[in-house]
Amino acid sequence: GEYRLFLEKFYPCKSNNLIQYNLYLSKETLNTTQLKGNFTFTIPLDDTIILDGNLASWDSIGGWKSNSMGTYTTTGLDMKELEDLNFPKVYFYGKYKLTVKKRNAKNEVLCCLLDISVASWDSIGGWKSNSAVYMTKNACSNWQKVLENVWNTLFTLFNVSNTSCPIAVGEYRIVFEKIYSCESTNSIQFNLYINKKTLSITELKGNFTNMVPFGDTFTLDINAASWDSIGGWKPNSMVYITKNACSNWKKILGNVWYTLFKSFNVSNTSCPIPVGTYITTGVDLKKLEDLNVPKVYFYGKYKLTAKIKNVKNKVFGCVVLDKKTLSVTELKGNLTFSLPLDDTVSLDINAASWGSIGGWKPNSMVYITKNACSNWKKILGNVWNTLLQSYNIPSTSCPIPSGTYTTTGVDLKELEDLKVPKEYFYGKYKLTVKVKNVKYEVLGCVEIEHSLVRPRETSTD
User: Fold this and answer.
1) What is the pLDDT of residues 381-402, one digit of tens each?
2) What is the pTM of this model?
3) Whose CA, among 144, 216, 416, 453, lies 20 to 30 Å from 340?
4) What are the structural domains, with CATH classification, of the chain?
5) Residue 41: Cβ-neighbour burial (10 angstroms; 0-12, 13-18, 19+)
6) pLDDT, tens only, 330-346
7) What does the DSSP assignment read for 191-250?
8) Which pLDDT tens digit goes with each residue over 28-59?
9) What is the DSSP-derived secondary structure letter of residue 408?
């Protein structure tokens, strides 16, 4: 009779893992079960490989019996959306296990997945097998035919822009756009930024501070979000969670681990990384691409969030400039004053402009003044109060007391009401703000890259 599917489990079976499925079912509510997770192609899924489907049913005396019927071959997806398949709508009721294998011309198994049960229990009790077997060439095209409407549903869920065969995937190079961190206890702090040094060289600069040793007592939680075609980040494009955070991060970074340690002047390249502050004067981003990760992936824009957690699941970590939606960009993160910001220090501001042939040219605008706190308050105008309120600083007057202040996010549009000239040359600028003591020692420094555009224009980023 007619049936509906009750999906019970998803798990990978033995293969060479060139095509990987990391999927699972999540019971969200009493009436909703979702498919979540990710899949990875290290080779394209196209019609040069063979689709091998085998459905096993549960025998009445226990155990799976194969060849019951052939298979036709995440943020979450309601499993009811996966029932609109292009295969017979009438079949024997029962519980089944569906195994889908993709083979190449050498009959090597590239991947396999999934455990399905059909709506009702067998009328005579127990489980039966060996109903049917289905094998076909042109795996990608035939899987698309079988899945029919479900094909497009899954492609939308997994943010694959091209729904035709072969699935768009290939070798890539990484273009780094921003370095930022997430909300944490600040026991491990990252103060990093990307600096355009010349027309062809972009660097990673800044420092990181370990208030505690970074070792294998922590858990590493990595989540890659992909940029949706209609705007906004969609999480879980790739998920990697592992214990022994330091050792496994070292494995993932590969040769980049040693490049970073040399650049940040970390003397020992083994785990753990000791307590301390480590500073780099700059490392070329091209040197950070030799990672120990798959060399083939879907092309697109991604946001990688790496969290370091302790056994209580507390996050150790630090400032975020995050693309939140298509129209809202936020400033996130924290600032820490080890001493009060007051008028005993001076403010040194220097704006560099981007040259027509590339590279930053300093001294486009220079402003140096004593009484740093009061004069910064004057320059920021209404933005001063906006920022202090966002960072939960109790008083808007000077000085700002010692402490760590954190914001959950402030819309960058709210930071434009500055008390500065409203007319200036259009272009790209890098603003360097330094706070100095009477000995001209730099106590704090921040660099802000920005563009001045016509009122009718928008940023290209």
Assistant:
1) 999 999 998 898 988 899 999 9
2) 0.45
3) 416
4) 1-59+93-135 (no CATH), 172-327 (2.70.220), 330-452 (2.70.220.10)
5) buried
6) 787 788 899 999 999 99
7) EEEEEE-SSS-EEEEEEEEESS-BSTTSEEEEEEEEE-TTSSEEEEEEEEEESSHHHHHH
8) 777 788 888 878 877 777 777 777 777 777 76
9) E
